[in-house]
Amino acid sequence: MLSAARRLSELRGGPQIAALDTSCVRTGLNRQLQHGGPPRSIREVRDGTIRLFMEYTTLVETAQRLDRFAKQFGVPKEQLAEMLNQDWLPYIAVVKLPEALRRVDERASQVEALDEDDFPAAALATLLSPAILLTHNFKDFAPLGVRDWSQGTDAVFAAAGIKDGETMFQGMLIVPAAPVVAVGAGAKWVADRVGPAGWFLLPLLGIGGYYIFRRQPPKRQERWKETARDLGRAFVEETSKAAEQVNQARELLNHCVVPGPENRTPISAVMRLVARSSESLSAQQICDALDDEVRPSVTDLRAYLHANKGDNGPFVEARRGGFELGKRSYRITTSASRSKTL
User: Fold this and answer.
1) What backbone torsions phi and psi does residue 7 show, to the nearest 5 degrees?
2) How far apart are CA 342 and CA 333, in angstroms?
3) Are residues 44 and 130 in the same domain?
4) Of 76, 83, 166, 257, which is least surrounded by CB within 10 A?
């Protein structure tokens, strides 16, 4: 129960993190060919619901398999490469993991024992966990808690449900405040033109409204009261529905993600924090945001980030002293003999 509660707390707030596997790229491309647009996962990345990452070796594997995918789909491989370059890769942060980082979590090594080609994606997912793993390969990724073919896509729908429910809930909370905001805006508009005396309109309007109500016939007063009660009941019902939608979607997401590690390492904590951030972070900002048990010294972290950036590791120095996780500048090019990444 404590483990489940911790996972739920780690999934609250901000975009959800997802790692992409080659098997899900294949089905996504096939769906895009059939429906004319990218799959739901990519659309949710565009909307900011999900932040999507892919290990560099997994991207290379995907590029090398375009020939096979093209033959299966009956289309030129150049068409698939162009779809990836235009609709996918601009929204995917590609992460280069050194060998030492791949072996931080024992669960990734268990996946490697089943299929070494899946090792890079498993390593990335465990480092960022709790995270969505977009794969259909539930056999090789079983050590990460992947139980069925649709678990990754189910998690995407759950993340979208959380966002939609929270938006609905916030919208419902605005409704009761709307009349007050409108009256306040009107009083401010008057005050800007006639001076502070305009604010005295607020109590006068309240008194005037009550006076008008009391002057109405009893039947009309009762109709107004009944209308107010109906509106109140409708507001409570819709607010409850939105809250229930968020709770159900969050429970589903918790059930579908790769669980976080039992004992998080400092590097895993750093990578997850940087992955969820909407802007580049300095070593000082990262340390300030981490819990005491996984917080390195600022000096050590700064040195580590610089030593593991660019081609040497997963981090990118987006500004002087500010780091992001992964790069979005990769493209797939095709030649007569093979596909490759640049």
Assistant:
1) -65, -40
2) 7
3) yes
4) 76
Q: How far is CA 69 from CA 43, 56, 90, 133, 136, in A?
A: 22, 19, 21, 21, 16
Q: Do 95 and 115 meet the contact criterion of CB atoms below 8 Å apart?
A: no
Q: Are 325 and 281 in contact (CB under 8 A)?
A: no
DSSP letters for 118-161: GHHHHHHHHHH-SBEEE-S-TTTTGGGT--STTHHHHHHHHHHH
Can you tell me the distance from the alpha carbon of 251 to that of 168, in angstroms, rounded to the nearest whole number?
A: 18
- Residues 164 and 20: their CA atoms lie apart, in Å, by 23
One domain for residues 262 and 236: no
Buried b / exposed e along 53-76 (16+ C-beta atoms within 10 A): bbbbbbbbbbbebbeebbeebeee
Nearest CA among 268, 315, 330 for reference residue 108: 268
Q: 217 and 268 share a domain?
A: no
CB 131 within 8 A of CB 155: no
Which is higher by pLDDT, 331 or 242?
Answer: 331
Those residues with Cβ within 8 angstroms of residue 156's Cβ, 6 or more apart along the chain or in another chain: 18, 40, 41, 44, 50, 132, 134
Nearest to 88 by CA among 37, 151, 159, 13: 37
Residues 31 and 143 sit within 8 Å (Cβ to Cβ)? no
pLDDT 10s digits, 16-42: 999 999 999 999 999 999 999 999 999
Question: What angle, 0 to 180 degrees and rounded to 10, lies between the N-to-C axes of helices 151-194 and 201-215?
Answer: 100
Q: What is the mean pLDDT of residues 1-29?
A: 77
Q: How many CB atoms within 10 Å of residue 206?
A: 11
Residue numbers of the domain that contains 46: 2-146+258-341
